[in-house]
Amino acid sequence: MPTNYINEGGKTYINYSTYNYLGLNGDSNVKEAAKVAIDKYGTSVSGSRLLGGELKIHEDLEHAIAQFLGTEDSIVQVGGHSTNVNMIGNIVNEKDLIVHDELAHNSIVEGAKLSHAMRRSFKHNDMVSLEKVLKRLRDNYRRTLLIVEGAYSMDGDICNLPKLLELKEKYGCILMIDEAHSFGTVGKRGAGICDYFDIDPKNIDILMGTLSKTCASCGSYIAGSKTLINYLKYNSPGFVFSAGITPANTASALAAINIFKSDQSRLKSLKRNSKILLNEIKNLGYDTGNSKDTPIIPIILGESEKAMKLSKFLRFNGINALPIIYPAVKESEARIRFFVSSMHTDKNIKDTLHILREFKAKEAM
């Protein structure tokens, strides 16, 4: 089970390669909710939700997501990648323009390609670069879909929502935010990017998030206005022609949300662990890029060989943190990536910093 430890080949490693941010994968209440759902509904809904696959717990989960985020409604679907692809292709076509951050997730890029809309990217989190694209191209297209992520999974930084909203209004864009890594982890309550900036989520046209990280399940959601959600329920091919999310996944996600909605202790531990690890890694002289206020911490080495070397050194010393190398990133941005969990202990962090300090000293010799 992916927690703050992982066991492989008879050896235990401190684990920084899991999205189990709040430690709810394996929580007894979450597991029990899944078991009860299986006993009551079986292992599958056995059909599209429009054709007999609708369960009361689907509605309960969608209501819980919307209430937690502060949107009018939400809709849950079976997969994160497919939801982005389907969502994007369902609202734009060859008459439109899609502008996205250059570090946007593959699902966003693939959705944009398949939509046949004109696609342009802007420099990562660079609002000047974004406005240049909008100023040059916006008037040539019927509508423009602007897509960013709440928290970026490679760099661990957060989108500039206030400025994005300003540009959205100025250029008449539809704003979509992928909150795969910010839902449950970012903001005072963990309610994501709008919570972080204290902005009314009703100002965002489309909020997307996954259930496979903080929610210890599988699937995804789109949240927004009732008009949007009602449209998707009857016009989105990925929803209409897919089976509904399974009873176990629905129940476990609902249980997880109810836990972190009512108990902030896990979120506080996650933030504390992330802040300590980030600051201390910086103090050791490592380049952590623009990571801030998220549980994602990169160590940017600048060469794939160096990233592999550090990853192997960590592994040899009982720490599981995987390298991200070319072609997944530019050679100059090769890195090790740490996903922090609320379950990481003070000793886990202390031991990790000790090994990173040893590596730094060894490289300096």
Short description, anyone?
This protein is an alpha/beta fold and 365 residues long. 43% of the residues lie in helices and 16% in strands. It has two domains: 118 residues, Aspartate Aminotransferase, domain 1 (Alpha-Beta Complex); 235 residues, Aspartate Aminotransferase, domain 2 (3-Layer(aba) Sandwich).
Main sheet: which strands, in order across? 3-9-8-7-6-4-5
Q: What's the CATH architecture of the largest domain? A: 3-Layer(aba) Sandwich
Strand content: 15-25%
In CATH terms, the superfamily of the largest domain is Type I PLP-dependent aspartate aminotransferase-like (Major domain)
Distance between the termini: 39 Å
Kindly state the number of beta strands. Answer: 13
**Rg estimate, integer Å:** 21 Å
Q: Helix-strand pattern, N to C?
A: EEHHEHEHEHEHEHEEHHHHEHEEEH
**Number of spatially distinct domains:** 2
Characterization of this structure:
It is built from 13 helices and 13 strands. It is α/β, with parallel strands linked by helices and 365 residues long. The strands form 3 sheets. It has a 7-stranded mixed β-sheet, with helices on both faces. The chain is globular, with a radius of gyration of 21 Å. It starts with a strand and ends with a helix.
